[in-house]
Request: fold
Amino acid sequence: MVGVFDNEFDLVKAFEKVKAKGVKVDEVYTPYPIHEILEGMGKKTRITHAAFFYGLFGALTVLGGMYYAAVISWPLNFGGKPFNTFPSFIVVTIVATILIVTITTLFTFSARAQIFPGKAAKIVHPGATDDKFVMVLKSGEAGFEAGEIEQILKDSGASEIIK
Amino acid sequence: MIDEKFVVPKKLKLISYGLIAIGIVTFAIGFLTDPGRAWSNYLLNNFYFVSIAVGASFFLSIQYISQAGWSAAFKRIPEAISAYLPFAAVFFILLVFGVHSLYEWSHPEEVASDRLIQHKSVYLNLPFFAVRIIIFFGLWILMTKWLRKVSLKEDAEGGMAHFHKSELLSKIFIFIVAVTFSAFSIDMLMSLQVHWFSTIFAAKMFISAFHHGAAVITLVVILLHRFGYLKVLNRSHLHDFTRYIFMLAIVWGYFTFAQFMLIWYGNIPEETSYYVHRWHGPFEILFFASIILNWFIPFLFLMPRSNSRSKLVMVPVIILLMIGQYVELYYEIWPATLHEAKFGLIEIGSWLGYAGLFILVLITYLAKASLIPKNHPYLEESVHHHF
Reply:
C-alpha cells in the first residue's frame, strides 16, 4: 500500500500512527531528509566503517607502492635525498586515498542497494521523485490490516492511496 | 525565556588567586635567577592565552557571519574568553622590556654586522615593534568590546537591529584579525630566528589559535554543564563543537605539514636552519609530539559519530590539545632563545599563574551577564537543536 502526501506534517502524523500500531514501514520517499522519519525508520548504516577501512587499506597500498617503486624496484638519487622520501609521498597518498575511498564506497553502496547502470527504475508514484511525500507499506508485514491502515492514511490527510 | 545567571564559586576564585600567586612567585624567582629563561616563559604563556582569546573571538564572529543557530546559547563563553585581551595587552606592552633577552634584531651591535638584519630593520625595530603591539591590541580590544556591548544591548532591548550590527562588526573583525594576528605571530615568534622566514607561518599560527580557542570554548561549556549551568546543552551541540575541533585539527595538520614538507623538499639552507635546530637533541621528540597531540589524536578519536557526542572522549582530547598547544609554542620559542630544552618548575609555575588569571577573568565576565543570551534571534533554534 502506498500513501501519497502533500506535506511533511501529514506524512509524519501518518508515520507515527502506523508505527504506534506496530506495523513496519517499508520505505519513505521525501523531497528532503526529515528527522522524525530518519530516526523512526531505525535504519543503521555500516558504510562509514567500510569507508574507514577502505581508506586505511588505500593509504597503505599507495605508500607501499611508492616505497616499492622508489626504494626497491628503481632507486634514483634526487638531489642527495634518501630513496625513501617519505614526506613527499604523503601528498600523493592523501589524494589517491580519497579517490580509492570514493570509488570503493560507491561500489559497495551500489552492490548493497542492488543498483547498477541501466537498471529499470522502480517508481512507486510519479510524485515520489518530485514534490510528494510517499510512504510505502508491505501487505505481508506483521499486524498489517489493509482497512485499518487505509483509514489511518486517510485520516492523516493522504492525497492519494494506491492499494 | 531561559534565565541563567552564573555565580562565581568562591572556591574557584580562591584557587585562581592562589594560581596567580604561584605565577608571581615563579616569575620573581625566574627573573632573579635566569632572566633569559623567565622572558621565554613570559612570551610563551602570553602568546598561549592570547591565541586562545583571539581564537575564541574569531569563533564568535564566525557564528554571527554564518548566522549559525546552534551556537546562539553559548555565545557568552567566547565573549567572556575574549575579555582576557585587555589584560594580555598590558603584558605584551611590558614585553618591550624583555626584547633584548629574546630577539636578536634588538641588539644594535648584531644589526651593525649583519646585512640581512639591516635589510629587515625597517620593519623589525623597537619603536615600530612597540607601536604595532599597541595597534594590534587596540583593534582587538575595540572590536571585542564593541561586539560585547551590542550583545548586552540586545539582551536589554531585543529586536533584530543588534543582531545585524553584530554581524557587520564580525565581518569587519575577521578581516582585522586575519591581518593583525598574522603580523602579530610574525613579530612575536617568527622574528625569534631573524634570518629565517616562512610564508605559511602566520597562517599556521592563526589556525593554531582558532583550533585551540575552539577547544577551550568547548571545555568551558562542558564544565559549566557539569556544574549545573547551561542545561540546554545536548548531544547535538556537542557534535557541532566536535566538528569544529575535528575540522581545525585537519587544517592544523595541513598547514604544519605544508610548511615542513616544502622546506624539507626545497632543502635551501636559509629555510632548513629552522628545522635543523629542531631536529637535533631533545627537540626532535617535540616535533612529533606536537603533531600527535594537535592532529593525530583529535583526528582519530573524534572521527566516530558516537565519540564526537561523548564528553568522556571530548574532555581528554581537549586537555591533550591544550598540552599540544604548549608543546607547539615551546618548540617555536626554546630552540630560538635558549637553544636547549629546559623544563622545570619555572615553566609549570608560570603557566599556572597565567591560567589562574585567565580563569579569574573568565568567571568574572561570565557572571557579569546572563549566561544564556536573552533576545538572540536564533536562541529558540539553539535550544531545540537536534540532528
Q: What stands out?
A: Chain B touches chain A through ten residues (CB under 8 Å). Chain B has one domain: 10-106+121-363. Residues 10-106+121-363 of chain B form one domain. The CA atoms of residues 143 and 173 of chain B lie 6 Å apart.
